[in-house]
């Protein structure tokens, strides 16, 4: 059974940092694009960042560019999201996702992702 498990969420003051992790089990995703999405209360789930299977290509939402960094460790089957200079608008449940297609560049559309984690809450206080 494929599982993506996020961790690292929590409460932080504006300007602070958090590091999220997403550990995959049940299969390897070393050949798959991985992504992070987020969903704030009352809003749709939105794209945050994606990383290609090689880790060379990344893509970020404009709202997080320059503040967030996505990375991966294929040996550990894990993807990370380093979040710096956090703002109250970053408050949301953050989800890890995996694209089932292999050897592709970083994917943006939510519809490209088949596997999803359960999410981890990130709350940024002002």
**Portion in helices:** under 10%
Q: Overall pLDDT, averaged?
A: 96
Describe the main β-sheet briefly: 7 strands, mixed
**H/E series:** EEEEEEEEEEE
Number of helices: 0
Cα gyration radius (Å): 13 Å
Structural class based on helices, strands and sheet pairing: mainly beta
* Content of β-strand: over 45%
Total strands: 11
Low-pLDDT parts are none
**What separation lies between the terminal Cα atoms?**
40 Å
Coarse shape? globular
Can you describe what's shown?
The chain has 126 residues and is mainly beta. 0% of the residues lie in helices and 52% in strands. The chain contains no helices and eleven strands. The strands form two sheets. Strands 2, 4, 5, 6, 9, 10 and 11 form a seven-stranded mixed β-sheet that branches. It has a four-stranded antiparallel β-sheet with strand order 1-3-8-7, with no helix packed on it. The chain starts with a strand and ends with a strand. The model has no long low-confidence stretch (mean pLDDT 96).
